[in-house]
Amino acid sequence: MTRYVFQFEEGNAPDRQLLGGKGAGLAEMSRIGLPVPPGFTITTQACNHYQELKRLPEGLMDEVWTHLALLEEKVGRRLGDSKRPLLVSVRSGAPISMPGMMDTVLNLGLNPITTEGVASLTHNRRFALDSYRRFIQMFGNVVLHMEHAQFEQILEELKQSRGAVDDTALAEPDLEELIQHYQNLVRQTVGQPFPDDPRVQLEMAIEAVFGSWMNPRAVVYRRLHKISERLGTAVNVQSMVFGNMSEQSATGVLFTRNPNTGEAGMYGEYLIQAQGEDVVAGIRTPNPIDQMARELPETYAQLSEVCRLLEHHYRDMQDIEFTVEEQKLYVLQTRSGKRTASAAVKIAVDLAKAGTISQAEAIRRQDPEQVQRLLYRQIDPQAQVDVLAVGLPASPGAATGRVVFSADEAEQRGAAGESVILVRPETTPDDIHGIVAAQGVLTSRGGMTSHAAIVARGMGKPAVTGCESLKISLSDETFTVGNEVVAKDTWVTIDGASGRVIRGSVPTIDPQLSAEFTELLQWADSIRRLGVHANADTPDDAAKARELGANGIGLCRTEHMFMGQERLPVVQAMILAESVEQRQAALDQLLPMQQSDFYGILRAMDGLPVTIRLLDPPLHEFLPDIGDSEEALAQAQVRGDVADIERLQVLLRRTRTLFEFNPMLGFRGVRLGIVYPEIYAMQTRAIFQAQAALLKEGLHPQVEVMIPLVGTAEELARMKMLTADVNAQVAAEQGVELPYAIGTMIEVPRAALLAGAIAEHAEFFSFGTNDLTQTTFGYSRDDAESKFLPTYLAEKILPDNPFMVLDRPGVGRLIEWGIKEGRAVRPDLHVGICGEHGGEPSSIAFCHEMGLDYVSCSPFRVPVARLAAAQAALE
Amino acid sequence: MTRYVFQFEEGNAPDRQLLGGKGAGLAEMSRIGLPVPPGFTITTQACNHYQELKRLPEGLMDEVWTHLALLEEKVGRRLGDSKRPLLVSVRSGAPISMPGMMDTVLNLGLNPITTEGVASLTHNRRFALDSYRRFIQMFGNVVLHMEHAQFEQILEELKQSRGAVDDTALAEPDLEELIQHYQNLVRQTVGQPFPDDPRVQLEMAIEAVFGSWMNPRAVVYRRLHKISERLGTAVNVQSMVFGNMSEQSATGVLFTRNPNTGEAGMYGEYLIQAQGEDVVAGIRTPNPIDQMARELPETYAQLSEVCRLLEHHYRDMQDIEFTVEEQKLYVLQTRSGKRTASAAVKIAVDLAKAGTISQAEAIRRQDPEQVQRLLYRQIDPQAQVDVLAVGLPASPGAATGRVVFSADEAEQRGAAGESVILVRPETTPDDIHGIVAAQGVLTSRGGMTSHAAIVARGMGKPAVTGCESLKISLSDETFTVGNEVVAKDTWVTIDGASGRVIRGSVPTIDPQLSAEFTELLQWADSIRRLGVHANADTPDDAAKARELGANGIGLCRTEHMFMGQERLPVVQAMILAESVEQRQAALDQLLPMQQSDFYGILRAMDGLPVTIRLLDPPLHEFLPDIGDSEEALAQAQVRGDVADIERLQVLLRRTRTLFEFNPMLGFRGVRLGIVYPEIYAMQTRAIFQAQAALLKEGLHPQVEVMIPLVGTAEELARMKMLTADVNAQVAAEQGVELPYAIGTMIEVPRAALLAGAIAEHAEFFSFGTNDLTQTTFGYSRDDAESKFLPTYLAEKILPDNPFMVLDRPGVGRLIEWGIKEGRAVRPDLHVGICGEHGGEPSSIAFCHEMGLDYVSCSPFRVPVARLAAAQAALE
Fold first, then answer.
1. For B250-339, CATH number?
2. Nearest Cβ partner for B788 among A671, A748, A810
3. I want to staple B293 with a disulfide (CB 3.0 to 4.6 A). Which of A138, B84, B300, B805 is the partner?
4. Where are the alpha helices (DSSP H) in A355-430?
5. Class of domain B528-618+660-874 (CATH, top level)
6. Is the confidence at residue A729, as pLDDT, over 90?
7. Under the GO molecular function aspect, what terms does this record hold (chains A, B) (predicted)?
């Protein structure tokens, strides 16, 4: 016959599936000799049988009575005894924690007779009576399915008739009367007297807890959290202990370490002569746990020892509930304590240094996304905030500044040292200079991967996007939220980690890069196999990346360099050139600018590889809007400004020629290099001239030239030849050898499919998973995230946003194929990834599995990537 | 020792590599007993040795003399003989034909003495002298590398001094004087007298022909045509025959059948008493070959027999050069004759019926692209045409009509029975009704796969696109080419096969669907394994497809059905709906319209499968331009038309919401079905209601529902469920079972990569290779073809336009993978292709190799596809 009931102290390896989380914990604590109030657990199997039979299974209660007898013997009290009555709690406990979802009955065993027994045992009749009336109320609600409010109403009426404000003002006779009223209410409502027999109470309570497994809120909770209905809940029957029995009794909660900072030492509070609920109810102010060393020194010592034992046993910081009954300590519950990100790091490092856990375990325990928060400014959790609106948490960190509505104004005022927040319906590459100068960005449109979001994340700058409740009027220079109008120059604070937009300037706290965190990352570095490079376009970003531990620059985009205010006109002149000569003249002007860009980055990363991607975006991105130009032309015509008319006509003609239906799939990347080789020639010349200058200074620039958007081997072959030609020219001019590597992005499916042929010409591959995801799915990121992707995620058509979490079955398969084919042709092919996925932990794990050499991510993701790469290596 | 020289009649299987094409042909003809002037061939190997040694190889001339002696014996004349001098031609002949690239010397053997011999032999001293002076000129040019112009100048001076206009006006003394001048010129220029010794002449000529293998134009030609330098050329030394020897001599060219129509019977012309060059020179008008039956009846009979022999031997219509010397017929050359598309079909079918070739061979010999021309109206080749401009040959066929500049006007006037040509800078889906009504389409922008081109090809309607020399002014309703202004209503003719735009109305000729062509296609049907379906959206197109032999409709697009003038407002109402109820109301209006569409197509294809693709394009394609609406709103505001303002504001808001950055990768296909299931529900209901109506009429509609743009199995699973629900509802309502198949397009790489999972839910796959090519390459077709693809093709970065010829290494690999994975899960998975590649021969061959079940192409490509599918099966 199946056995349904187990004493806490039975068995060696408690079975969480069978005993539930709480039951297993109680068994585990009992087993290692901690002072746990004795009791027993009725298994989840009994629950499952109950659900099938709709009644308690045969023989269950016989087993319960047998175990109850053992329990009574152990504690020296008996259920229903008039002198030494045993009271028990009856609690649910599923294999997976479902806090608050199911029912609990405390103080079971009370009736008019045992109440008097408790009164004499605790020397506190008022407490006994109050416990009894609470028990009737709880049992009535949980077991007899009566309305909580019915009991409360009676209580209120009595308090009013007595002129009492608090429950505590009720005297013993009042409580006796209240109990009488409660018993009448029960009899009237359920048509039966309240059960006085504690055994009847127990059986009814067990059945009620099993029944609560299927209550509506538990069912919804399980559906939300994908918890199987088949798990069932266990029932724990445990003897009650009384923290309110005397001055030598107490109750409290504590963490074995400070959960905010991770500092060693108990952190918590307690109340003398109180029950657990008094701590929660807030009627009396609890004392800090340190004070117990004076009030109950022996128990305090015992508690310290228990904490040590528990931490050692569970190998982690614990969150403990305890009760002291007549100086005897009982641990009621223990579990891993929730903690802040910085505490998580410190605790793990401390435990590892103490030898409690390994360094590997310390790394495994970190949640990389939580760790990420340590790297951004945060809003002071203590601050009072006036939240105006909530948008998407597009780029974490907190920023405060005055509202401005144009990138130009942001740039001017930012340059003048002002703190501004750039507010736009959405941003475009034309706004980059404003984003650079602003403290943060706020948009009313666009998703987590809109232009604003990507650029801001790339810069490590806070951004809130898609804040649709903002109605922005660019002409009035205001935005409106509901009835509130926020004008230009108003101070606001944005929290890119939560998406909050807050009125006023709110105090923020600095990122925490503690000694422990630094140490943990060093451990990670010694464990990980994947290199971690950064995507950085400026010397500042490169320096930041290096500071955060990057092993190189995996993606240095050159297009942002074209966007500077003094450069854009030259870039536009190059695009508008009507002959190769005109274009060359503009390129000649750009050459020294680009050279200084590369000089700066190569210098910042001296000795580490810098992968420079040649120009990628469609040229029309550098030209003004057609609409804007048309308007300017109309105005010039009104003015009769002949020169301007001519200029604008040329501009418009060229802009229209460059117009594209699907720019994402258009005339960009290597396609530019093939049609306008002079552009790539200028860029490679700038790179090699910078390299030559650094070499002459005795430095060690490591140059990698990366060709974007290659789809055929021939494209790469041509650009490789062009690069080699330029390299040879510059080397000859400068009289110095200029070693470099050349490779390509794999970012269209065809490149992955033809990776073998492409690898003939490539020394390295870098999977551009942003574009590869777009082309593999046929999703335009900007369009998908504002149109159908929300529905797809809500309806679980896709498990994750594939622009955030790498799509293993589709994109991943192409990556796998690309690596296999590429390495078959060139076994030493260096392979990395430089899409946004390079900073996402589960995608990093995939990269590790696939045998990539490195991931590359934004500088502020580098520590997370180092950690995630180590975690992947530990899998 | 290597043997370098072979008599024509030696050997059984002439070796083209060794003897060259001409030499092998002469040997072949000699071998089968045709009357070929005797001679011998010096091998390509000798040429190669000459190239290495830079001189004629050891022993070569000894061999030549031996063979010359044999030749002299055979023809009874001797080189240099004063009475019966042998004259020979010395011609190059490479293994691969390089027409006109290398040198030839005729009449070799002439000197003052042999010239008199020829004079007495031919009874024509003037001819002998003229031959001699021509020989000096040719030898001087080819062998002695003198300028042709030098000789011509002397000739001109002489003619002027004699007052002669034509060469023929020069008398014998004049020619004697000319010869003297020529010999002086040679002596002065090369410092040596002109060689009189015929053996010296021969050795020098052979060396010159070998030398010409490396002349610059031959080198360039080989590079262009990728012909190896290692092939070398052979030299053919052949006795000259004289068609001008007497009235019983003649020369001529003929085809063994009529090359224009394919009719049996000799087709050609000849001249009595003439040499070959006289026919070409056009000094005398040749006679039709029939006349020879009267003038030289015996020779004519001999010639007929030779034609029969040649056709039988070469198993094809031949193009022959012949000479008659004193009634004796000599064949100088034979080769497969060039022919028109219709002649090619007739000849092959006739030869097959005569048992000369097999039916399979008749099919193999057709060039599908040439055959395609038979299916379109053509400009009468006899017509005089005034070409205004030439654009891209976007959709073949000729069309004549009056120029109109708006789709609305095209529709009105077309409906009134007028012939119009719609001229637009480019077309959009808004212009469909105009394209339908016009005879043809002409655009100044857009490539071979622009909207105009694709739509026109789909409709089998002539189109010329990207005609950039046209400057269109929509406001003036004119277009300008150079200085010519063409106003509205002007008659023009466009030729979509050549891209010509012609002024005026030009006579056109009907497509030729001859009995032979029909028969050939029936043979093809019995050979091919691939099914040939058609892409058709209307009952008329479906009927046309069926008439042209389609086995079903492989792609019935439903979006064009939404574009009709009476429907678009309802479609727009559906899109602008602000609630599900509003949308449902609009859909309820569309339902009967769609039902009648499907009813018509299913009826036209009764008994054959019809694959209906649910709505695919982004919804904004059905809305007006943002710019147009803004202007309309501005005007409404000026008018103060409140209702219109409100309507336009709603329209604008929704249009802006639906705006996409990359519509190709946007909110379309199944993504619409997931977010707005009510749209697909309406469409499937319309399909099943139409099916029910037809079943009740006793017909046999074969319904296949196709879900577009699927990228995840879950998308298809949802839509399959929706379809099954609607099917069950309609079946219950109509009281009839409604069998159908459901499947999906594979048109994004992820679908091919996850084909196994998708096949769990799909009964068929149809590879949408247009979109699959776009996403695999990361090319937007519209942008690529107007921007970088021309450069890619010109520079051979891609071998073909991948939108026309399926890209085997990339897209093909995905198709291969998709089929393999799909059939692994569902072995009976039906697989087709419905991109434009479905009508392209080499892509059809790939589909055959991959084991696809069918290809689907536009109705007018169906015959080509039937032929190409048979050719693939014969490979």
1. 3.30.470.20
2. A671
3. B300
4. 359-364, 368-372, 407-415
5. alpha beta
6. yes
7. ATP binding; kinase activity; metal ion binding; pyruvate, phosphate dikinase activity
